[in-house]
Amino acid sequence: MTGPLLEVRGLKVEIAVPGGMTRPVRGVDFSVAAGETLAIVGESGCGKSLTSLAIMGLLPRAARLAAETIALKGLSLIGLSESGWRRLRGERIAMIFQDPMTALDPCYRIGDQMAEVLRQHRPVSAEAARQRALELLTRVGISSPEQRLTQFPHQLSGGLRQRVMIAMALLCEPELIIADEPTTALDVTIQAQILHLLAEIQRDTGIGLILISHDLGVVAGVAHRIAVMYGGEIVEIGERDAILGRPLHPYTEGLMHSIPVPGETRRGETLGFIPGTVPRQTGELTRCGFLERCPYATGRSAAGPVPLREAADGRLVRCVLPLDGSGRDPAAWTRQAEGV
Amino acid sequence: MNVLEVRGATKTYDVGKTLVGAGRTLHALRGIDLAVRKGETLGLVGESGCGKSTLARLILGIEGPTSGNVTLAGKPVGGYGRLERAKLVQPVFQDPYSSLNPRMRIARIVAAPIEVRGIGTASSRRERVRAVMNAVGLPEHFTEVYPSQLSGGQRQRVAIARALVGEPEILVCDEPTSALDVSVQSQILNLLARLKRELGLTLILISHNLAVVHHLADRVAVMYLGRIVEHGPTEAIFGAPRHPYTAALLASVLSPRPGARLPEMRVGAEFPSPLAPPPGCAFHPRCPCAGEGCATIDPDETRDGPRGYRCHYPLAHA
Amino acid sequence: MASIASATAAPVLALSPGRVALGRTLRHGGFWVGGGILLVILVAAILAPLLTAHDPTWQDLGKRLVPPVWDARGSWEHPLGTDQLGRDYLARLIYGGRISLLIGFATVLISGAIGTALGIAAGYWGGRVDLLINFVLTIRLTLPVVLVALVVVALAGNSLTILMLVIGLLLWDRFAIVTRSATQQIASREFIVAAQAIGSSTGRILFKEILPNITGPLIVVASVELAHAILLEAALSFLGLGVQPPLFTWGLMIAEAKNQLFFRPWLIAVPGAALVALIFAINLVGDAVRDVTAPEGRA
Questions:
Q1: Domains of chain C, residue spans
Q2: Of C283, C274, C227, which is closest to residue C248 (Cα–Cα)?
Q3: Can you name the residues that pair with A259 across neighbouring β-strands?
Q4: A205 pLDDT higher than 70
Q5: Fold annotation for A1-92+172-340
């Protein structure tokens, strides 16, 4: 493997709000190789969506971006002009959103929308664009694609719309696809099918895929590597099975203990939970960002900002606890008083 | 004793109707039979459009069934005055951002059910509000704040406190954790489990999340397109589903364990429209086991001990 | 729980959404300019007898058409001069504003009550009620306001009461349209279903749950309609079908001065400028309210 497909170093996003500055992303480093799926996992407000929007150059106007490196195959994306972004988006990086109903234009037929995207980037005839759209609709498993081309988004079911979104993302054969909660708005029986499709396309085309989700279950079946975000930072990043098998950051551990799994957790038993709520992201961190909610917090957690450290299996963890997982009692997650 | 009974309940809506023109008919519920014993937790499972929220509205008495009946404590829901009904059954909704009036302080929101019924004096109601907020784990000083100042989990606790303040028999929880973050979701599940244990509440738990239903429910009813296609004790249903749709739902649960693979889904992707339910068994266009007769004959319920299912070609016992 | 509660239970101030909106309004520049002008006009109208010693209806034919003080022939005795019947123009401006504002506010009360009631009913019940109210609304929208007002006033006479009733009964459409859609949005929220489920009466749901949540758009419409009503009255008065002497408004002052347009332009310019300033101020305040209440965080 020669160099990563996407490299992100020191990505920060700040947003001015009445009475100060919030820092929803506080310095994020990661890379994605071609043919790899990186999952970014975290709860609402952890900064995962802003991170992906920053890579797409789609941050809201009020947000300020700072980064050492955001590079796609060596091409720096920092300070790219609007026309530069337009050439890049869709052509080399594509995005799949949570709600395909709002991401598709309700006024245009599926075929016209797909042709429009393609012809923005490629000098192809209308007929060639149509052929390409047909080919991709078939590729994403849509039956009777000819008919779909002439339909409007509202005439399709949620699952079909998401397939259309995926087909649109593939139009220009991008090198990187960012999928932001691609199955959250879908029914459970459809969810697995869409995830299958994403995994399959990723495998067949060898693109890089960033999968953003709040759901560890979604991530488990698709990702190669997982980055867990909390409070605007990556708190744990590494190989999927290592992280899911033995989470080393207390936040990841708490999440794993919070999820009921039929056949594993006993019915009605007290589930683990993370007490408290995500603090507001203002000011610089002067200590561990997870400290207030952590049952394992020690004096050293408060001593200063916690750096990422490498564990024996190569993953990076932002925690002061021993990285062999010793000295922890998982029962702590259920034993705590019921907080709010 | 059955505290809730639903017999042959149907609900249709006319859509696209004008003063003169007739519209089309949406079949939200197509004959529901249910019985829930006191102190029991019934899990209602199904995907969007299956009619589970409509059923919740019928149980809450917000709407009446088009035909059939819904009986609370031995009497039709429609036969109760609105205050008597509120004493029996209370809702907890999915979205705690939408279920609390943004213009009211928490104390007023929680006190509303007993205030409307005119129970006690203002000061005794304040006492009661304090007690119930304490019971759901909300600190006392939250009484004076507004919903916008609370997090999603805190708001859901407020919604639960409001539902409990009038000491109802039945709590109808419509996707109570779907809008919440994972770590908060487990807190609400713990709270519901504890309240159920301590107060002997009857719980109707509506969810598309089978893990949540498995965790709390004593019995499960699986809905598809306005019908209950399978029901029975939770362990039995999860252990050996007889209806292919139940099996598909169970297979779709994504496990966050290492080595977990994406489940192979064998059901078709097209969810049928409730405006035009397929003839015969409504699930047959998506069903991997469909055979002769499925497209034409609507299967009746087959009873099997404490459970029942509607299928011509049920899956074998495990 | 103590340890956790203390960590998260930092001082929680009870900020009502209303107070947050008010705070944002007070930081809005347009609100201060518009509100300032409006306040000056309101205070002048209320304190009229204290601000001028002249009786606005007292005719002094010996002092007809005295020019205002900025003219070489003007004097401080009549700062804005006198009209063709020798009445003090400043006094007439101040007292005339009273009637203009009275008509504006009274008609907004009437039209606001009608429109809000119909809009909430249509939005909350929907179905046939909505269809019926929409039908009435459509009929109302087909009526040309000025023409209908002219006909009614011509037939029924033009007392102040009739004028206020006619304008009030004509200008409810925007209230109805806006409250209907605002109510539809609110009624679909789950707290309305929760209110139904706790056994709330319909009145409680409409007045305690829905109404407080649509005050933002209501204030905006009220400001637009206030300006609208004042202008409509001015137009009717100008056409001779508004208030009748001895009552007078800014519109009537303009009407009475129309023959002097070329020779004594101040007679029209003064009430005209007052009218423009009032409408401008009302619109600024309405804009400010819309800025802070409409889509979240547009402050």
A1: 20-293
A2: C274
A3: none
A4: yes
A5: Rossmann fold (3.40.50)
**Architecture (CATH level 2) of domain C20-293:** Orthogonal Bundle (1.10)
Asked if pLDDT for residue A33 goes beyond 60, the answer is yes
A116 CB near a chain C CB, below 8 Å?
no
* Mean pLDDT score, B137-159: 89
Using a CB–CB cutoff of 8 Å, tell me whether C189 touches chain B: yes
CA distance C123 to chain A (A): 25
Q: pLDDT, tens digit, for every residue of A256-303? A: 999 998 888 888 888 988 888 777 777 788 889 899 889 898 888 888
Residue among C210, C189, C292, C297 nearest B103 (CA): C210
Contacts of A263 in chain B (CB under 8 A): 238
> How is A215-254 classified by DSSP, letter by letter?
-HHHHHHH-SEEEEEETTEEEEEEEHHHHHHS--SHHHHH
**What is the distance between the alpha carbons of residues B205 and B192, in angstroms, rounded to a whole number?**
10
> Which residues make beta-bridge pairs with A8?
A30, A70
DSSP string, A140-199: TT-SSHHHHHTS-GGGS-HHHHHHHHHHHHHTT--SEEEEESTTTTS-HHHHHHHHHHHH
ipTM over 0.85: yes
- Tell me the average pLDDT of chain B: 90
Domain hosting B308: range is: 238-318
Of all residues in chain C, the one with the smallest CA distance to B93 is C190
Contact A340 C7 (CB under 8 A): no
The pLDDT assigned to C6 comes to 32
Domains identified in chain B, total number = 1
CB-neighbour burial class of residue B289 (10 A; exposed 0-12, middle 13-18, buried 19+): middle
Question: Beta-carbon neighbour count of residue B294 at 10 Å?
Answer: 22
Residue B150 belongs to a domain: no
Minimal CA–CA distance to B5: which of B88, B81, B113, B84?
B88
